Structure formats: C-alpha cells, structure tokens
Amino acid sequence: MRGKVEAVRNDDTSEWGWFLAWLAVGACVALGLAALLSVGVILIAVGAVAAVFLLRRGHTNALVGSIAGVALPLFYIAYTNRGGPGDVCHTTATGSTCTEEYAPVPFLIAGAVLFVGGFLVFLVLDHRRKESR
Q1: Closest to 29 (Cα-Cα) out of 64, 59, 69
Q2: Which positions ≥6 away from 31 have C-beta within 8 Å?
Q3: First-last CA distance in the chain
Q4: Is 131:101 a contact under the CB 8 Å cutoff?
Q5: CB atoms inside a 10 Å sphere around CB 18
Q6: Taking the model in full, what pTM does it have?
Q7: Domain range for residue 19?
Q8: How many domains does the chain have?
Q9: What is the per-residue pLDDT across 57-110, written as a single tens digit (0 to 9) for each?
Q10: What whole-number distance in Å separates Cα of residue 73 and Cα of residue 32?
Q11: Which residues partner with 88 through β-bridges?
C-alpha cells in the first residue's frame, strides 16, 4: 500500500512540475511578443523549442499552464505603469524626467483572469484525471 501512495504523490508532483514548465513557456512567448522589436524573436524561439520538448515529454493537462504564463508579462506591464494613466514625472538630484504611462488596471485584470483561469482549468482537468483512475 505504501508504494502505491508514494507513486500517486510523485505523479501529482510531476504534474505540477509540468504545469510550471508550461507556465514558463507561456510567459516567455508572451514576453517575446511584448518585446518583439528588441529581444522578442529570441524569446519566442526559446519558447517554441521548449514547447516542442514539452509536447513530446510532458502531460497534456499541464498545457493550460501556458495560459497562466501569459499573465506574468501582463502583471509586469501593470506594475511598471502603476503611476498612470497619463504623464508621470520623477525628480532626481540632477533633473527630472517625465514619461507617459498607460492605465495599469486593464493589464492587471487581464492578467488576473488568465492566471486564475489557467490554474482553475488545470485543477479541474487534474481532478478529472484522478477520478478516472
């Protein structure tokens, strides 16, 4: 009985590991799209290579981790625009700089929906997989 419990626990841990790997792929591709004019092409290529590897080796339920991964760059964009919307000025000892920032709320909401949605879909699929055993 103990061997069976350990096997189930290792399989669950493995499933979460694949989910986190897909989360990283989704974040890499989304960040690549956001930075397409600079390092975006390299990030998209890295994400594509990782996706091919994961499709060959990983659990298919964990693929929804890429949905949650898309949220991470959106959270970063919301954080960097936290002073917006509009012109935001910063003063230092040597001068001041002003930048125009977007409204952070749409990025935050979209990121939260994708992040929570990806986790919920994964949990539902994982629960169904466990029930079918």
Answers
A1: 69
A2: 40, 43, 72, 73, 76
A3: 16
A4: no
A5: 20
A6: 0.76
A7: 2-132
A8: 1
A9: 867 778 888 899 999 999 988 998 887 787 887 788 888 888 887 888 899 999
A10: 9
A11: 99
